[in-house]
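From the shared-data thread, chain only:
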Amino acid sequence: MAQKKTGLAIILLCLAVLGLILGLQAALNISPFNPSAYNTYTHQALAWRAGHAYLSQDIPHLELAIYQGRYYVSFPPVPSLPIYLLTFVFGANVPDGLLVMAYALLATLVLFRYLARRGFAPFAAAGWAFLSLFASSLLPLVLQGAVWYQAQVLGLLLIILALERLDAGQPLMGLICYALSVGCRPFNALYGPLLLYLYARPRLAGGTRPYDLFRQLLPGLTAGLLIAGLYAWYNILRFGNPLEFGHNHLPEFSFQGGQQFALAHLGKNAQQYLLGLPFARSGAGLALKPFGFSLFLANPLLLLLVIWGTALALKGGLNMERGLILLFFALHLLLLLLHRTFGGYQFGARYAVDLLPYALLFLARRARPSCTKAEAAVMLAGLAFSIYGSLMVHI
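Structure, as tokens:
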């Protein structure tokens, strides 16, 4: 009976994900088989096939870094790896929208498996997996294959894989996925110390010797450092700086005097992306703000994270694990708020998608692996709002 429930939950989850995405794409006349106009990673993959780390020419509508007279992709390289393989089948017409859909579906299924292992009943795990990801700023990102969306959705998938594999006692695969996620979203590096702590603490408490724990982690740590070394080598090859992925050489920063990260951005971003309302007055009444508003309204799971953490703190039940999850969430959010933008034209706060795994870690450690009526109402309202926002952003 348990296997039948699990199988049915997985089928319904897949149908829900595909039905939601395909339904929205149909309403917006978007085909997942058509390459995005913002197919930067395809251009990078084709350049690799030609033996170059730079593009052969400028493509004005793409965000390209300009360094020593050459044009480079200004985003971390990992999303180009699957695209590279697909160019041997599709050439320059890789259906990147279909790829983003696949990333989103895989992330949902991996999250389902993670929550089920943590004690959630099959339908509770399926419900939380679906709502956690799609009642959020993620939903508009999975409808098209633009460069920004590829990086963010693949980065999210890899972090969810990392926490699931580490929870399953497979640190090698978990740390490889973590390291690859950094090559999609560099601030994902912040997850590393937290994931290592969450892996090590119960094992040390259960009697594992530190030396034996280090031996378990060594292959994954070595693989992660090798991947980091490849990033550094690639960045040195292109820009002469192991930490430079290219954004500082975008014209808006290198020629026009803008600052990518600065304390001066914090006040404005906090007001807009923490406290900002989603609607503004327009000639026709109220209209959704197209350049962002409170991440807690667009991503209700993050609102629940704050509520859960505050409630536990007031009750004195905030242990070291949960406290560190909240601390790293706050640190990651602070660093994002220092960026000049929080994602440009978007629904809510696109960068907040990077923060969802902190809430998933917290959710997986709750005393009762279920969902209250109030939580269900919040998440379902968030899903309805995300559907509306997706339609407004892509219309």
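The two ends are 44 Å apart (CA to CA).
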